[in-house]
Amino acid sequence: MDYAIEYNGFSVVLEEYNDANWISDSNETKSTGGYTFTLGGGAITWRSVRQTIIARSSIEYEFVALEMAGSEAEWLKNFLANIPLGIKPTPSVSIHCDCQSAIAIAKNKNYNGKNRHI
Question: Which is it for strands 42-50 and 32-39: parallel, antiparallel or unpaired?
Answer without folding.
Answer: antiparallel
